[in-house]
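Follow-up to my post from last week.
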Amino acid sequence: MITRRYMQAYMLLAAIGLFGVLVVLYGTRNPHIEALVVGVAVALIVPVPLIWLLQKLGYPIGKAVHCARCDAELPAVRRPANIRQAMLGGYTCTKCGAELDARGRERAAS
Ligand SMILES: [Zn+2]
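User reply:
Got it. Predicted complex:
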């Protein structure tokens, strides 16, 4: 299912891919237009299986994450509240203040 969250994740990955393609071609002295077309096509297609794979692995990419305690939808762009969150991912629920991991599960207070 294509949701707004999915499109955000897709656009982000596609933008990174396109940037990579442009950097590689920029470093090539005589880039062929075919290489550009193939590179852009790959950059646009790769995010689809990549997001699928990450979702299979349990990462909530392209999906809304909900708080395990109060079920509030967590923002797509999170501001880490501490160094552990910045390193490992995770949220502090804006509604109930629960500490959650990157998948929205409640984390035991430490
Ligand atoms: Zn909550």
